[in-house]
Amino acid sequence: HALSCLSYEERFARAFEFMLGDVVIADTMADGRNFLFGELRDLGLGCRIVTVEGEQISRDGNLSINCDATKIGQTRFDFVAVESTRKRLEEIEGRLHELKSQSSACTSSAVTVQEEAQHLELKLRERSVALEQCQRELRSEKGKLSDIESIISGLEPIAAHLTEEEAGLRE
């Protein structure tokens, strides 16, 4: 509680409570951000953060700095890190674009393969129907052949008898 860090006259207690009741003082902006956006957010709580340098984070997360705190060499922005982060972001965006392109190509290939599979399944069904028809015709023709062979078997003794009779007549 910020009030425990300050000395004040009791008659100003309500004013200090009103002004500082939701203020947490942090050593650095990084500490303040970690506390506000990490620990408190997890608990569903909020507060205002003020650093010893005068930087502030409002309850809604807006950051503001004290101009005196931005002395040369003390700015809280590390431009090398910003440039490095920007380059890394560009690399990630490039990779993401590449992956999206590959995904589109794979999706297109998958659609083509699926269409080809459907076409082949249709051909297979057509050929299966044709095969069944040929098998029915084959069974029918085998039945006819069997009937013809039975007839031939029945005619063989008659043919043999007629051959003998013809031979007898020729003698």
UniProtKB/TrEMBL annotation:
GO BP annotation list: chromosome organization
Gene3D superfamilies xrefs: 3.30.70.1620
InterPro entries reported for this sequence: SMC_hinge_sf (IPR036277)
Cellular component, GO, one term: chromosome
UniProt superkingdom: Eukaryota
Example of a GO MF term: ATP binding
The protein, known as: SMC hinge domain-containing protein
